[in-house]
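Q: Given only this backbone (338 positions), what sequence would you predict?
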């Protein structure tokens, strides 16, 4: 009886004790080969924040990791930082900025203030493929990058172009096209997080695309963020600290991820920005999905048309013209889930 009571006491202590968990990355064996890995937000805005849990986990395991973002900030106007080209700058914490929207700068400041770390956030100007590819080539040489993990806040990067709902696919496709052209980089991956948090996406077709990529051995697995993970806790602190800036526009995708990890469900709104829209917060939102970048690019029906684009508007016009003339929309499908 004493042994049974002793066991029950220990087991109860285990249940109530706060403990830290590792982020179980299915791509660790691949990225652990890299001497200098670049984690880059591919769709703009706060996408680089979506890569922070992976960044923290890999740094904890001793890897050398850098952060970058396809930026919606005024990069050319930014006075300061480590400027490599007119449209590529390394953003550092010590610089001040008069424009309110600059998540890369506020993230660098969070690293300095909360962790006493001097972390450079590399920011690419929001451009077409030609200047973005040139900027990637410059940064790859500057940092001796031998692996790139593109981070998509949402699942736009998996859109082929013939779905019933394609979301805001242009920016992700620009990054996908540019990094796909970096054939000298041996490790090139895509990770998506925020499934279900976007509007105007045909998710049944996205699942069909993932199944198709699985047949091609291009899907490398998934893992979920949990509140017990130190990597998640650091990410949440960074995100909420930046979003509390009174002049900073919050991120819908990242707020949805945090909402889901905290156990919220359905039409839950963390920020006033989303009031009036309908959200679907679910356990799918905090899942990372990992893919072979080259094979994702090969499935895309139109990114080859982007190779010579200079601006985002040029890329958008190319997509609209090409999709109207050459892409036939897949029949609308319905998920069997109620």
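A: Predicted residues:
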């Amino acid at each position: 009886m004493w042994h049974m009571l002793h066991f029950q006491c220990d087991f109860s202590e285990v249940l109530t004790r706060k403990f830290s968990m590792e982020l179980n990355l299915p791509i660790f064996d691949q990225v652990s080969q890299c001497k200098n890995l670049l984690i880059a937000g591919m769709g703009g805005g706060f996408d680089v924040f979506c890569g922070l849990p992976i960044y923290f986990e890999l740094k904890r395991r001793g890897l050398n990791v850098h952060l970058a973002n396809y930026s919606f900030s005024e990069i050319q106007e930014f006075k300061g930082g480590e400027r490599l080209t007119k449209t590529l700058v390394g953003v550092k914490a010590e610089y001040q900025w008069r424009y309110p929207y600059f998540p890369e700068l506020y993230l660098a400041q969070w690293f300095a203030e909360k962790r006493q770390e001097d972390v450079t956030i590399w920011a690419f100007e929001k451009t077409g493929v030609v200047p973005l590819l040139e900027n990637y080539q410059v940064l790859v040489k500057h940092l001796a990058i031998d692996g790139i993990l593109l981070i998509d806040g949402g699942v736009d990067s998996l859109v082929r172009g013939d779905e019933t709902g394609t979301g805001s696919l242009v920016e992700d496709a620009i990054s996908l096209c540019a990094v796909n052209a970096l054939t000298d980089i041996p490790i090139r991956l895509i990770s998506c997080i925020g499934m279900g948090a976007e509007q105007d996406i045909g998710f049944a077709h996205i699942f069909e695309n993932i199944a198709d990529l699985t047949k091609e051995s291009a899907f490398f697995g998934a893992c979920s963020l949990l509140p017990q993970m130190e990597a998640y806790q650091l990410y949440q602190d960074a995100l909420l600290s930046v979003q509390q800036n009174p002049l900073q526009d919050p991120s819908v995708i990242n707020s949805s991820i945090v909402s889901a990890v905290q156990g919220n469900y359905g039409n839950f709104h963390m920020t006033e920005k989303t009031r009036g829209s309908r959200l679907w917060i679910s356990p799918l939102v905090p899942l990372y999905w990992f893919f072979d970048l080259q094979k994702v690019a090969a499935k895309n029906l139109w990114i080859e048309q982007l190779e010579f684009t200079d601006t985002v508007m040029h890329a958008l016009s190319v997509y609209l013209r090409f999709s109207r003339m050459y892409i036939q929309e897949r029949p609308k499908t319905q998920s069997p889930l109620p």
